[in-house]
Amino acid sequence: MKTTLGKMIATATVISVAWYGSVYAEGSDLTVFDWSGYEDQGFFADYMTKHKTAPSYTFFGSQEEAFTKLRSGFTADLAHPCTDATKKWAAAGLIKPLDTSRLVHWDKLSPALTKMDGVVVDGKVYMMPFEWGNTGWIYRTDKITADAVSLQLAVDPEYKGKIAIPDAASSAYAFAALGAGVKNYANMNDEEFKKASDFLRKVHPNIRFYWSDAGQLDQAMASGEILMGWAWNQSELNLQGNKVPAVMMRDVKKGIATWVCGYVHLNSSTQSDEQVYDMLNALSSAASGKYIVEAWGYAHANTEGLAAVDPKTIKGYGFDKADEFFARSLFFDAVDPKLEAKMLKEFERIKSGF
Q1: How far apart are CA 147 and CA 137, in angstroms?
Q2: Which one, of 58, 54, 18, 67, lies nearest residue 35 by Cα?
Q3: Range of the domain at 103
Q4: 21 occurs within a structural domain
Q5: pTM for this model (two decimals)
Q6: Using one digit for the tens of pLDDT, what is the confidence trace for 40-98?
Q7: Selection from 259, 298, 336 nearest residue 83 by Cα
Q8: Of the listed ranges 1-15, 112-126, 144-158, 297-311, the one predicted with least confidence
Q9: Same domain, 167 and 47
Q10: Within this chain, do residues 342 and 254 fall inside the same structural domain, yes or no?
């Protein structure tokens, strides 16, 4: 009887602990692998309301870094790649398809994004699109005029030590493709690849640093250490918010890139699906959408969130001409795997001065 009673107590304890852990899981138990800055609680207010504490974040500086780390055994529940990486991550077995029936705002997300290649892979939805924006040429307007600015200034000896571009091969080659007049960024042939690489080699002597943290670029441009940089919308907003005379060159004829990023459910996830989808639903809400436009300068996937923003703000970022940006700018699409390997190898050589 003692043994039976002990088993009954032990079983009841296990059930109680399991039930308690499921219902009362700490918000911080959820782990997110993300770009620096996306731990901003304005993005997931509904999650905070329900779970009280924020998820735990680990950051990456580039998608190449994130992929390598995940392949090496790093684990998390959610990650935040862009559409150009999703096929590669899915093929590597790093992510699982999403159940869109559990995404309460799915029908409010832009169909142009939810049906996009990279959101959908082999007929299955692997990504919940979150935000889209630009990587563009940001410059100091008190030093360079709108008429004079161009990507070609990156190779002008006059600006030696006054340039910064990302320490990420894919972004650097997108910049180089635009600067060198190469249109086939994701599938460059040998001649086009050489042309883009040669452009980066010409830029290298003018580089102050290759940035891995946007804050580094922002500080350097604010101080005047650099005058131009290949960067995201967020940097433009941060600089202008700090009264720095800087703006992103948005003329698609001169060169600007567009990207779409979102959240994926990692196969290494250990937290409950309920908690994972609580976070995804918070991120995709209209409130999150309004916040990211106003506080970060990015467009959100939720169309109701965009509609809640002052039209002047939307127009100022060019989000009122989304079709034009997607059609006429360089879109960050999945790069051919062999070409990607060449980019990674050659970019390291260029940074080393070869």
Answers
A1: 14
A2: 58
A3: 27-129+259-319
A4: no
A5: 0.86
A6: 999 999 999 999 999 999 999 899 999 999 999 999 999 999 999 999 999 999 999 99
A7: 259
A8: 1-15
A9: no
A10: yes
Contact 26, 54 (CB under 8 A): no
Hunting for tokens 């901003």 — which residue is that? 40
Please compute the mean of the pLDDT values over residues 139-155 and round it to a whole number: 98
For residue 25, the model assigns a pLDDT of 61
Q: What is the pLDDT of residue 7?
A: 34
What's the distance, CA 340 to chain centroid? 18
The answer, yes or no, to whether residue 24 has pLDDT greater than 70, is no
pLDDT band, very low/low/confident/very high, at 21 (cuts 50, 70, 90): very low
Written in H, E and C, the secondary structure of the chain is: CHHHHHHHHHHHHHHHHHHHHHHCCCHHHCEEEEECCCCCHHHCHHHHHHHCCCCEEEEECCHHHHHHHHHCCCCCCEECCEHHHHHHHHHCCCEECCCHHHCCCHHHECHHHHCCECCEECCEECCEEEEEEEEEEEEECCCCCCCCCCHHHHHCHHHCCCEEEECCHHHHHHHHHHHHCCCCHHHCCHHHHHHHHHHHHHHHHHEEEEECCHHHHHHHHHHCCCCEEEEEHHHHHHHHHCCCCEEECCCCCCCCEEEEEEEEEECCCCCCHHHHHHHHHHHCCHHHHHHHHHHHCCEECEHHHHHCCCHHHHHHHCHHHHHHHHHHCEECCCCCHHHHHHHHHHHHHHHCCC
Query: What mean pLDDT value characterizes the chain?
Result: 91
Q: Which two tokens stand for residue 196?
A: 């883009």
Average the pLDDT over 167-194 and give the result: 95
Tokens of 338: 């062999």
Angle subtended at Cα 112 by Cα 340 and Cα 280, rounded to the nearest 5 degrees = 80
Please say if the pLDDT value at position 17 is more than 60: no
Are 80 and 64 part of one and the same domain?
yes
347 and 284 within one domain: no
